[in-house]
Amino acid sequence: MSLTKLARLTLLTSALISSGAIAQESVLNLYSARHYQTDEALYANFTKQTGIKINRIEAKEDELLERIKNEGAQSPADIFLTVDAARLAKADELGIFAPLQSKVIEARIPAHLRSADWAAFSTRARVIIYNKANIKPEDVQNYEDLANPKLKNQVCSRSGSHPYNLSLLASLIAHMGEQKAEEWARGVVANFARSPKGGDTDQIKAVAAGECGVAISNSYYFARLMRSTKPEDKKIIDNLGVIWPNQKTQGVHMNVSGGGILKTAPNKESAVKFMEYLAADEAQRYFADGNNEWPAVPGVKTDNPALAALGNFKADTLPIPTLAKNAVLAQKIYDRAGWK
Ligand code: FE
Question: Nearest CA to 29 among 18, 38, 16, 40?
């Protein structure tokens, strides 16, 4: 962590502690590893509805967890929010969460999208993006196809160590077993057009530029480009096709964003209110309409032209805690397969 960042965090935390100490005013101290500008409206709306002021610290996942650990029982943090199943599990393993006891959450969030200690509030699909000029869609219908020697020098990927790819492989381990999953990873590595680098949007751009024919990306990065008004983004999208993988088998791999209430939360009541707010229709719509994710709550009506254009699909309903459990093995397999 840089010194300026550390200073900023320290200042913020002192502000949090003193604001809590002034009076019994209702506050909520949120430690968030979500970094989406569109979330501002989500938080502002909570304050408008409840009068509870949100003090927010946004930083990288590891910095926030380190901070929570160091602050110990004195931590001002009420809620920890993050993205990715493996990261939620990591936080859970550190023992920072209190059991999530809310009838509202239990009724609203499907069982496969929560554990005893945390709940997912939005989902994102890991889709296959291909270049329409040089890849036939029938050749990339499944994750398995990416390991087919037919696609030699055609696959672009981000790092295997990134949680999005760890969770994807964690799901494949659950569906095909460790050995087949490793064969798959080796097959994909053998098809790489270049060494893994960049984020999901970089892979999408590389496919559009013809640097490779196919890549995997979280759906919201693609939806973001679809909704962009920039001509250069329109051009990228025009060259590309999207596949919902594994529609005849387990369905497309889904990851989540979610959070939990800290054991040491000084504002437990506000924290429960906030978690329940995130599961309500209005907040659920923010995830979809603002950040192009899907609501975790079934049946919530959204108004997002990109998501509507992407259409319906079969989602893998593997319990998210299973993904989290397999994440360590997934990293080992990527290491053995040379997926850097
Ligand atoms: Fe992301």
Answer: 16
